[in-house]
Amino acid sequence: MKLLVFSDLHQEDDALDKLREISNREEFDYVLSCGDNSQSVSFLEELVASFPRFFLIPGNWEGESANSFLSRSRNCVNGKRVELEDGLNLVGFGYSSYTPFSTYGELGENEIHDRLGRLNIDNNTILLLHCPPKGYFDLARGQHSGSPSVLKAIWDKKPFVAFFGHIHEEKGTMRLGGTTLVKVPAANKLEACTVNITNKSVTVSFIALR
Fold first, then answer.
1. Structural domain range at position 108
2. Overall pTM > 0.90
């Protein structure tokens, strides 16, 4: 399975154009977005029409109207599970823990814990998140800004791979128990990643959107 994964597009037309070019140039089974896509419904409409097999979640930055649109979109997997080929499934959980910016899509840790606890995540799951787990690729202004509840859910439910964005300065991969963590770079900085999954072996390449 080959994926194109991006995050934190933040309504950047040039970045979306580059992502479309890459998608048209290479063959991907799915395109995934880890949130913070747009506050504009018209931009979201353009985004979901840009890729044939596309799934996304909201981040913390989308506002009320954008979240309302996403809740009605078949492309949005927030709080949902989608069965994929090769015995794999995709589960999405958007939003973030509290930030200094008081954005629309922020949740308390108890709510994150409760919502994630209700999701059907297993060791065949590709977990699509916005917020990092606490302590992993989450340094912002010298503080760890990830979610302890996301960290606990990954430890307890053991998805085989988890993608997340949110912290623009970070990117990379790491193992957490049996889970491959992938911190997806910010698309508004003209970066993304391609991912190959073969027999649950995950190979990640970070790419410039040029």
1. 2-208
2. yes
